[in-house]
Design brief:
Layout (H helix, E strand, L loop, with lengths): L2 E2 L10 H12 L10 H20 L7 E4 L2 H9 L9 E5 L4 H12 L3 E5 L9 H8 L5 E3 L13 H10 L3 E5 L11 H4 L3 E5 L10 E5 L25 H36 L6 E2 L10 E5 L5 H10 L2 E2 L15 H5 L4 H5 L1 E5 L6 H25 L1
Helix pairs in contact: 1-8, 2-8, 3-4, 8-12
The structure holds pyridoxal-5'-phosphate (PLP).
The site of pyridoxal-5'-phosphate has 15 residues, from helix 3.
């Protein structure tokens, strides 16, 4: 049976989530904007879904709008720039393309984009960040946890500093939610992006949490849905699924996190006994499920394909940038040398991953590294 260890790319739908969604696919087809009873059933489902998703991050339901996913939430968050005079804004150098690309869009329209540099562990350098904050950027966007390395940023202190300089603060919490405790108010941010398919919910739905009436121009114009920010009839079944996934993520956070962390540590402890294996950002605070390893001498893509041939799915970097053969911008920003960066593979455990799967991966990596070392010595 296939072994799936790529949960930072996407997760399987939880059976309880599917069950919650089915009535909204099969029976309750009313438009939530309709005032008849069929419409009201759909509206009620969205209202309670909003409460559940908001509850996952300790926000008020009125602060949350549903989007088509993390990408849309990030794009909408950066749209806040449109309501300001052209000025400086900053985003971390290790952001997901769903933040970096909108940032470049605004840069191309005359905004001064500053990238917040990270150290060798992928953590934002607070002194350099403060130098940039002194230029009083209008917006700072820093992800809570990185999708490639799992590194968790010191968001609270960064957000506090940025607020003191008057910046609006956004965080992409897509990878953090469901893996570590996330509290919207305690994090000190004004805007937070979430995505359902990273927490065992359906794809194509996410949310943006907005702390107060920030002036953000809408993404989609039309009937004024989601407080006018993104018009269009709501995807009721997906929203209901997201809410169920959020409810389970909150209930089971501790046990999921301990379980994944146990597997991650088991894997890393064993990998450290294999000659040449590097664990990237090992000493930084990281998500409990993620490990990024590099095996010099074996290209990440080659290792990925060899593991795939053995029925094991991992990633050679960000899934959203998998068509790119360049070393990832995240590893570049961490000043990892190119050879090491090219030989990275990301393993991300999920709530249902097992010890047997972890050990099967280890065995496969041991075999492949041994084979590669033998081939290298023959070539020599
Ligand atoms: C950190 C991060 N932000 C945003 C996204 C995009 O989210 P979505 O797939 O819901 O658009 C991803 C997806 O991989 C991600 O890892």
């Amino acid at each position: 049976m296939a072994i799936y260890l790529d949960h930072n790319a996407s997760t399987a739908l939880d059976p309880a989530v599917l069950e919650a969604m089915l009535p909204y696919l099969a029976e309750h087809h009313g438009n939530p904007s309709s005032i008849h009873s069929s419409g009201r059933i759909a509206r009620t489902a969205i209202d309670s879904a909003r409460e559940q998703v908001a509850d996952l991050v300790g926000a008020h339901p009125t602060q949350l709008i549903f989007t088509s996913g993390g990408t849309e939430a990030n794009n909408l968050a950066l749209n806040v720039l449109a309501s300001h005079e052209v000025a400086t804004f900053c985003v971390s150098a290790v952001e997901h393309p769903a933040v970096l690309e909108p940032a470049r869009y605004w840069q191309a329209r005359g905004w001064q984009l500053e990238l917040l540099p990270v150290d060798g562990d992928g953590l934002i350098d607070q002194t350099l960040a403060n130098n940039i904050l002194q230029r009083q950027p209008v917006l700072m966007s820093v992800m809570m946890a990185n999708n490639e390395t799992g590194v968790i940023q010191p968001l609270q202190s960064l957000a506090q500093n940025a607020r003191e300089y008057g910046a609006i603060v956004h965080t992409d919490a897509v990878q953090a939610v469901g893996k570590i405790a996330v509290d919207f108010n305690a994090s000190g941010v004004h805007l937070m992006s979430l995505s359902s398919h990273k927490i065992y919910g359906p794809k194509g739905v996410g949310a943006l949490v907005i702390d107060k009436a920030l002036d953000i121009p809408p993404l989609l114009l039309g009937g004024g849905h989601e407080k006018g920010w993104r018009s269009g009839t709501e995807n009721v079944a997906a929203i209901v699924g997201f809410a169920k996934a959020a409810e389970l993520a909150k209930q089971q956070l501790g046990q999921r996190s301990d379980h994944m962390c146990g597997l991650r540590d088991r894997l890393e402890n064993a990998l450290k006994t294999i000659d040449g294996v590097h664990i990237i950002a090992e000493s930084a605070p990281r998500l409990p499920n993620t490990t990024l390893i590099a095996i010099p001498g074996i290209e990440g893509e080659t290792l990925l394909m060899s593991l795939d041939a053995k029925g094991i799915a991992v990633s050679s970097g960000s899934a959203c940038a998998s068509t790119d053969t360049e070393p990832s911008h995240v590893l570049r920003a961490m000043h990892l040398d190119d050879e090491l960066a090219q030989s990275t593979v990301r393993i991300s455990f999920g709530k249902d991953s097992t010890v047997a799967e972890c050990d099967a991966l280890l065995l496969a990596i041991r075999e492949l590294t041994k084979m590669s070392q033998q081939m290298a010595s023959v070539a020599w």
